[in-house]
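Lab notebook page, bench 4
Experiment: in silico fold of construct C2
Operator: M.H.
Input chain length: 386 residues
Purpose: comparison with the prior construct
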Amino acid sequence: MFRQLKNCHNVDDLRLLAKQRLPGPIFHYIDGAADDEVTYRRNTSAFEDCDLVPNVLAGVENIDMSVTVMGQKLDLPIFCSPTALQRLFHHDGERAVAKAAEKFGTMFGVSALGTVTLKEIGDIISTPKLFQFYFHKDRGLNDAMVERAQAANFNALALTVDTITGGNRERDLYTGFTSPPKLTLKSLLSFAIHPGWALNYFFGEAFELAELKDFVQQGSNVSVSIGDYFANMLDQSMSWSDAEALKARWGGPFCLKGIMSVADAKKAVDIGADAIMISNHGGRQLDGSRSPFDQISEISDAVGDKIDVILDGGIRRGTHVLKAIAAGAKACSGGRMYLYSLAAAGQPGVEKALGNLKAEIQRDMKLLGVTSISQIDRNMLRYRTR
């Protein structure tokens, strides 16, 4: 069945439209995860372990969905988490996501492995921007990325802490996915049967990792898997003292992305971080680890009064957002939920994804009997299992 954007009413619909448009290796890079992908599936299925308990007769004509995270007011309680390689999925890449996020008044996270410069993103949107930082062995590169994010007026910086080495992404091994894509007999066939994607990729703007190309060839001019990039280019000696020094150098709102334990959440507070993203990298690193939703309550109970706690990953529905907030999250973020839509239709696709979620959150808040995010609390949850 050939799908159209107007008939995409949820993330799964957008996923199928992306699968139609993308060559196999590119689609499976977005869609895949580590090992047996148990954690990837758990990230979403964990929300099924509890139920919402609504109130009624609450006067819910006017709904306020806004939240404040890292000092930034967002019109939605969910934002676009930083993801790599976006111009592989659609030729507009980060430009499309940035403009869609601005239209919905939410934050856009830009990856260090992004394909559009930080300066350009800073020039085209005025809404909140988060730069996601990978700690490279090359300290000159690290310093340059901080300086460029500061010059582009990014509002916050997130250090990713769960990529000390690459996860075992077996789908990428089967498909031969690399950045940039390698031209093989198998991949050429896949490119040929997706001519729309292929024409844009081969004859459009040259693909590159915009902030890294001046320092490393891997990923822009030399094909490499993302797992190998993490294993070989990132600094495996990174420590809490490095994170604290990066926070001081940045000088603005600072977040750690990839926190999963109470002990690490407390350390994040100790070094003065403003926020933590409870995340397992979309199940793409340590398979068999807990889902963010599994951990959000105990982490929020431990540090939620001292630091902004963000649930990152697994979001597919507005009710998932509300459950996460009820469990203790200040806000949520997600990657695949907008990457499928970017691949499906560029900026209109991302707008469709965010519009779907906004409509769901608004409707579900009314059905839950609340008029603002601050009214959602643990009393509105009942857990089936633990």
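Observations: The mean pLDDT is 95. The chain has one domain: 5-383.
Next step: discuss at group meeting.
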